[in-house]
Write the structure tokens for this entry.
Amino acid sequence: MSKTGKSKRMSVEHGTEKVQGGEVVVVGGSAAGLCTANLVARGGRRVRVLEAAEELSPAPRTLIVTHQLQNLVGAPAGECTVNKIRRFELFTNGRSAQVALQQPDLIIERTKLIHALAREAREAGAVIDCDTRFHAVAPNARGLRLEVETKGKREELHAASVVGADGATSRVARSAGWPALETVPLLQAIVRLPKDCPPDTVRVWFVPADTPYFYWLIPESEDRAALGLIAEDGGDASKCLTQFMEKRGMEPLEWQGARIPVYRGWIPVRRRIGRGDVYLVGDAAAQVKVTTVGGIVTGFRGARGVAESILENGKSAELNSLRRELGTHWLIRRALHHFEQSDYCRLVDLLDGSARSKLGEITRDESARLLWEVARRQPKLVLLGLRGLLLGGNSARRS
Ligand SMILES: Cc1cc2nc3c(=O)[nH]c(=O)nc-3n(C[C@H](O)[C@H](O)[C@H](O)COP(=O)(O)OP(=O)(O)OC[C@H]3O[C@@H](n4cnc5c(N)ncnc54)[C@H](O)[C@@H]3O)c2cc1C
């Protein structure tokens, strides 16, 4: 895993008192929390991770990420990769388009990722306490006082900084005064890979009558794939996915699902509480690309940013760049969100060879460049996007 900034031990000013390397407590031992713990520990600070689950073995989850993962976390990316994707096929109402990727996307398995990240964090010196649930944070003379429950017993901890990496319904965020996040359900079923689908190809269906997002089929091996959708309502997600499978003769082998935050504007990741700092990272800070509701790569970028901020006393170029990235995804989602079937048909028709080659060359983790290059090659897509924004504006006015 790469280090952020300087690895020298930093001192943090707390009013008149100087806390040399006071302990950083990270709440949540999942992707964003373990990545933050590793980076902060490598920067020379004492780090303790509190995880509510009895052990670090989250339920399996099949995830697709761009090759950026490799640059962000290094070795763990290789350890958790179970398949590589070289092509996307887009479908809508009988039309289709193919996009070949220049650099393959990675299909990763969450449990493997978490184990690899935990090993790296421990090697960097972080301590991971499982079966430890965070309840509340408040200021005290030394920095921050945390109320936690360890193996059913209430106790108090003290820290200079707390990082909330505890997911979409973050207790750290609520306790420190951040407002609750809007969330959407993301549901996927593991199914047998259909015979006509190559294992290196992801299929995406735009069906605006069912969801303003999309359905996907992501092969995780030669014979299994994750079929899923993002919906606006949990009941709809399950009903639509079941119907979608029935129509295609697919059977669910297992289910994976959770609510994921919707990014609706930048959430400042740091709050001063008395003499301590509270930070948010990952889903807890809605660091999720709202176009695809993917939060792994952006959560790792948030982790880098928060680690930089802790180690460099508030400054982080990574957080500024992440903010721009998430903002561009928000703009694209606003354009797509009110698309009707005819708009999606037009979108697929407009993806000619030149626009498709740019889509395959630039990843969705470089959204501003992607948007600019595709629009340059197919300016009619800009008009279609503007129409989407107008449709959104009109429906907002109507509602
Ligand atoms: C079915 C599904 C498919 C997805 N597919 C993709 C994909 O293909 N690509 C992609 O990029 N993203 C995908 N996502 C989103 C991605 O999984 C999340 O954005 C990411 O896992 C968020 O990581 P996180 O570490 O921020 O939070 P979480 O993974 O939610 O972790 C929060 C951790 O905090 C712990 N915790 C919670 N409360 C407390 C507490 N009070 N005290 C102590 N610990 C606590 C939890 O036990 C958990 O370990 C998918 C999500 C779902 C549900």
